[in-house]
Amino acid sequence: MNDFDHMKLDRQLCFLLYASSREMTKLYKPLLNELNITYPQYVTLLLLWEHGQLTVKKMGELLYLDSGTLTPMLKRMEQHGFIKRERSSDDERSVIVSLTPTGVELKEKASHIPMEMMTRTPLTSEELKHLSDVLQSFLQSITNEMK
């Protein structure tokens, strides 16, 4: 082992996470194309299906997206009729995002995706659970580190 083995690309955690994320997103693409949504729109819908409605600020926190990325995507989703955005009556600076009936209906059409994705990965359900737990812990620790 030479002094620079730690500099090899396949030893970089950042690269492994990046490449894995890109490949996972590619696996989602055909399933999401059937629904005419992108992966970022899908995770946004997952969040709204779980919570019903959220402020743009809270969505950004939960999706790890800044408003410069989130707002244009939400505008496109609103144009497609999946969501509606309304100023809060309590605080004019706050925008509340909620599902439209079309957005709610999409949940049923997307309900097969999580199980379908499990079949497209080479890991067992136990390995997937372990990986998910490790990534949850890792994400939480690095975001706490940045605060």
From TrEMBL:
Residues 10-140 form the HTH marR-type domain. SMART domains: HTH_MARR. The keyword Lipid metabolism does not apply. Gene3D superfamilies: Winged helix-like DNA-binding domain superfamily/Winged helix DNA-binding domain. It is found in: Cytoplasm. Keywords: Cytoplasm, DNA-binding, Transcription, Transcription regulation. Pfam families: Staph_reg_Sar_Rot. SUPFAM superfamilies: Winged helix' DNA-binding domain. This is MarR family transcriptional regulator.
